[in-house]
Design goal:
With 493 residues, this protein is mostly helical. The protein has 17 helices and no strands.
């Protein structure tokens, strides 16, 4: 029956339903458009508040305008760190569905803020990371211009990288900024090229080590747990060991990297502490895993549930360590500028004031809440498919790689390690699937078909190339931008 033959009331209700459907679609489209606008508005409000906090904390004076400008750009940098860098900690847990996006954001905000305020920013040198000889920019005005240019350049690049969907190293961004401004101020001879060579080497070392360890752990779990005939028996034996290894690794990691401000711990002491905690956690979790496994089926799907809670704990600990370590990338240059303006001295180490630390801590958290979900989804869902087991391997790999690299004296990026771990898990699964297909086809007496080989590509190549390109250009691009900004700021400062 056509609409024209329906009773008037039926036609009226159908028309009303269509109109309501259009209104709902319009409201959804409006909300989708307005969401980024609201986020940008809230970010601007936060930046303005940080400028006002700077005035209240330092008072009015001859250098107030410079301090306010530095506070504004420090807040902008912190927002961009939250939007870009935190995804590496939370992405795997969200991609594995161990956490919802909302739960991940809450945990990350709490632990990032705690790490920043409790253990972050022990002391920041006047020239970040020994990139430029301190004597080359000892003049306060030159130093302020260099730090301001580095801060702005790093912030702008992080903002662009987030928009492009590329997780990059905030440390490399600020290092590139200092390099460009320092070279512009004192010439290329003042640049400490040995340090720069180590940083360039970390572009390769970090993701390769992260991917290697993540693939190694996944291979171990598949060999001794997943592929075992008695899967639950193997899980009762090995899952407590893996959880203890995680606990011990993170204890050593936090002792060395995240608690410098609270206590000075050498690497041997951190490793002994990690061993003690790891054994204790293993002993505690043996009966816990035994009870949880008691009612499960002897299937691979059941085993994944055992890794959910440890994965959430590892994501929280990574966020704490990230807040403790990377907050200095946002507030270090700001603290150095405040010190140079107030003391008119750029030749000594700079302690970070509490109000400056607050800008960094809350800026990272706000940046994560407002702009972080996009990259969390990319890292956790769009590079390769993750479950609790694979994501756990990525988190464990991140902590172990940092400790191993520290022991060998190798400079590494936590961002590159985490994303490299995701790549490593994906490429291992590709290799393993290809190996199984080849063995199966050899038994049938035929080679693996090209179409079948293409279907077994479990890592998105476009993301691999895009992220790798962003990593490579981070230092040179921020250096170039910082050099231009240093020259432009000469007319202002």
């Amino acid at each position: 029956m056509t609409d024209q033959h329906l009773p008037p009331k039926v036609n009226q209700w159908k028309t009303l339903d269509k109109d309501l459907g259009r209104i709902v679609a319009l409201e959804r489209a409006t909300a989708a458009i307005a969401r980024p606008t609201v986020a940008i508005g809230l970010a601007l409000v936060f930046v303005v508040i940080c400028g006002l906090v700077a005035v209240a904390a330092t008072g009015m004076g001859s250098g107030t305008l410079v301090i306010v400008a530095a506070a504004v750009f420090g807040a902008y940098m912190a927002l961009n760190i939250g939007a870009n860098d935190v995804a590496n900690n939370m992405g795997p847990a969200v991609g594995a569905k161990a956490l919802t996006m909302g739960g991940a954001l809450v945990i990350a905000v709490v632990f990032e803020t705690a790490g920043s305020l409790i253990a972050g920013g022990d002391v920041v040198s006047t020239i970040s990371g020994g990139i430029v000889a301190p004597a080359a920019v000892a003049d306060p005005e030159t130093f302020i211009r260099a730090m301001m240019a580095a801060l702005i350049a790093a912030s702008v690049w992080l903002n662009l990288a987030t928009w492009l969907g590329a997780p990059v190293s905030t440390t490399h961004a600020i290092v590139g900024g200092v390099l460009g401004a320092g070279a512009m101020a004192a010439g290329f001879g003042a640049v400490q090229w040995g340090t720069m060579g180590q940083i360039a080497a970390s572009w390769v070392i970090s993701p390769v080590l992260g991917g290697f360890f993540a693939a190694l752990f996944l291979a171990f779990i598949k060999r001794f747990v997943n592929d075992a005939e008695d899967k639950l028996g193997a899980a009762r034996l090995w899952v407590p060991v893996l959880i203890g290894l995680m606990a011990g690794t993170f204890t050593a990691y936090l002792a060395m990297k995240g608690l410098k401000r609270l206590v000075d711990v050498s690497m041997p002491q951190a490793l002994v502490l990690g061993l003690v905690v790891g054994v204790a956690v293993w002993a505690v979790f043996r009966p816990v895993i035994r009870r949880r496994a008691a009612g499960m089926e002897n299937r691979k799907r059941s085993l994944k549930q055992l890794f959910g809670l440890p994965l959430i704990a590892s994501a929280a600990l990574l966020s704490f360590a990230h807040g403790a370590n990377d907050v200095a990338n946002a507030v270090g240059p700001l603290a150095a500028i405040v010190h140079a303006v107030k003391a008119m001295d750029a030749s000594e180490a700079v302690a970070i004031p509490l109000w400056v630390m607050g800008i960094g801590a809350f800026g990272i958290s706000f940046g994560l809440l407002l702009f972080g979900p996009r990259l969390i989804r990319l890292v956790g869902q769009e590079i390769t498919k993750l479950n609790q087991m694979r994501a756990y391997c990525v988190a464990l790999s991140a902590a172990i790689t940092v400790i191993a690299a520290s022991g060998l004296g190798l400079p590494v990026s936590s961002t590159h390690i985490a994303v490299g771990g995701v790549f490593g898990v994906g490429f291992y699964r590709e290799w393993n699937a290809e190996r199984r297909a080849r063995m199966l086809n050899l038994q049938k007496g035929k080679p693996v078909a090209p179409d079948e080989r293409r279907r077994r590509k479990l890592v998105r190549r476009a993301h691999v190339m895009g992220i790798a390109a962003a990593w490579v250009v981070t230092v040179p691009l921020t250096a170039l931008l910082s050099a231009v900004l240093f020259w432009m700021l000469g007319a202002v400062i």
